[in-house]
Amino acid sequence: MTDLPDGIQRREFDGRTRLATRGEPVYGEPTDGEWRCWDAGRSKLGAMLESGMDIDLTGDEGVLYLGAASGTTVSHVADFAGPTYAVEFAPRPMGDLLDVAEARNNLFPLLKDARKPETYSHVVESDLDLLVQDVATRGQASVAVDNARFLADDSQLLLAIKARSEDVTADPETVFDSVCDELTEAYEIIDRQRLEPSHDDHLGVVARKR
User: Fold this and answer.
1) 88 is in an annotated binding site
2) 42-209 — its CATH code?
């Protein structure tokens, strides 16, 4: 079971014990005082934590988050982490992400393409502790490998592999194995686990930079 830092707790919402972070609500999630429910059904990283994957969090990580969208998950990350760089390619959700960042002075939205890390290398600091990736694109392993440049040695990658983004016709397990094989160019895989029932045809991967 994942050891949770002080910034993440298990609290009761709607009669169930669920993950929570302390921060400003973002997507209408249930709250308990200053604590907000981290809905695993809307967050692949939340589902990875709920499933007890072998994730090591201290609560003060420097984070690069790829695929931030409108800020649902990255808002929870910024609630417990240190400086959090949120990369999102699509202009439409960027307005929501900017609103989320207004309440979090450690969250830095970047309208950039995660497949082109050289376009934000002048902004994102090096020697970060954590790379979180949730991007819907072919070549998910290449994205993770190319962005390893921002991580200190032995830092963590938390990756949600979307099988249908790689090949909608292929068996998901075949896709997962292929992506994991490519990841070994830069990472040692520590844990992998399917994210059903929260997220169909997704694999959660925990890895460390070599």
Assistant:
1) yes
2) 3.40.50.150
Is 73 marked as binding a ligand? yes
78: tokens are 């910024």
96 belongs to an annotated ligand binding site? no
Query: What is the sign, positive or negative, of the torsion defined by CA atoms of 101, 140, 154, 150?
Result: negative
The full set of domain ranges for the chain reads 42-209
- 3-class DSSP assignment, residue 78: helix
Mean pLDDT of the chain: 96
Alpha-carbon distance of 29 to 35, in angstroms, equals 10
pTM above 0.85, yes or no: yes
Does the annotation flag 160 for ligand binding? no
**Residue-wise pLDDT tens digits, 15-27:** 999 999 999 999 9
Q: Is 177 annotated as a binding residue?
A: no
CA atoms within 13 A on the CB side of 112: 22
